[in-house]
Specification:
The complex is a heterodimer of chains A (about 140) and B (about 100).
Chain A lengths: L2 H13 L46 H20 L4 E5 L4 E5 L2 H11 L6 E4 L6 E3 L4
Antiparallel strand pairs in A: 1-2, 1-3
Chain B lengths: L3 E2 L5 E8 L6 E8 L7 E4 H6 L4 E9 L4 E13 L2 E10 L5 E2 L5
Parallel strand pairs in B: 3-8, 4-7
Antiparallel strand pairs in B: 1-2, 2-3, 2-6, 4-8, 5-6, 6-7
The chains are: A alpha+beta (about 140), B mainly beta (about 100).
């Protein structure tokens, strides 16, 4: 998404009255490999009308911190007991939630930490998902 | 559930996707991607029009072998008469696609 598109989206959400708190204070964009991209944004919008958080200011490094926690604290045990399961990790607390699918693990994490973002890794796999058709 | 095969040989199935909290929904044809190990990929424009809330971040390996960090979004999928909460991956393409066996 381009910055103009994103700003338009935020404005439309704001006009629809869905933002309860939080403001867009800065905009940033980068990919996991550090190259310029359009997948990650930095902002401080925290809730929309539904109560669902759409992004927080610390989101950009959630995957890196969660994956590091997994490698250092969880991988050895989980590969023995829960191979092929999905594990959602909330990196601030270190809480983790297992599921048979990405969605199961994510739902469990969301119940425990509705205001925090998590990352999901798959036990015994180098990546969470494979996408055959490409993006 | 009955799917169809289009002129390009793609297996398609009609699905209904909803925002988990507000009354916004879309009915669409999803392409069954047997190489996909997630549940559903939606074009970003659909994620936007459905106002889907942000979900976890993940790492995905694409068909060319490259790895990319992606955001997921939470939605409800109508599946055999039940609403299932799933995480969808947003892409920049035009076609939704789905892994058949994962629901």
């Amino acid at each position: 998404m381009k910055k103009d598109d994103f700003d338009n989206l935020v404005e439309s959400v704001r006009q629809a009255g869905r933002i309860r708190r939080g403001e867009v204070t800065e905009w940033d964009c980068r990919r996991a490999d550090g190259s310029n991209g359009d997948r990650c944004f930095r902002m401080t919008i925290e809730t929309i009308e539904t109560g669902d958080r759409i992004m927080t200011s610390t989101d950009t490094d959630v995957y890196e911190r969660g994956e590091r926690f997994y490698q250092e604290q969880l991988r050895k045990d989980l590969e023995r007991t829960h191979l092929n399961s999905f594990v959602a990790i909330e990196p601030d607390s270190g809480d983790f939630f297992l599921g048979r699918t990405l969605s199961e693990a994510s739902a469990a994490a969301n119940c425990a930490h509705p205001d925090r973002r998590c990352c999901v890794v798959r036990v015994g796999h180098p990546v969470t998902l494979h996408i055959g058709a490409g993006l | 559930m009955t799917g169809r095969v289009d002129d390009a040989g793609r297996a398609l199935v009609r699905i209904r996707v909803k925002n988990p909290a507000v009354a916004i929904e879309e009915e669409l044809d999803a392409w069954i991607d047997t190489g996909f190990t997630g549940e559903l990929v939606l074009p970003r424009r659909l994620v936007r029009s459905l106002c889907l809330p942000l979900g976890p971040t993940i790492m995905a390996r694409l068909a060319d072998g490259s790895d990319v960090q992606l955001d997921t979004y939470t939605c409800l999928l109508e599946w055999f008469g039940e609403l299932k909460r799933i995480e969808v991956v947003a892409n920049e393409g035009h076609y939704p696609y789905s892994a058949w066996a994962c629901f």
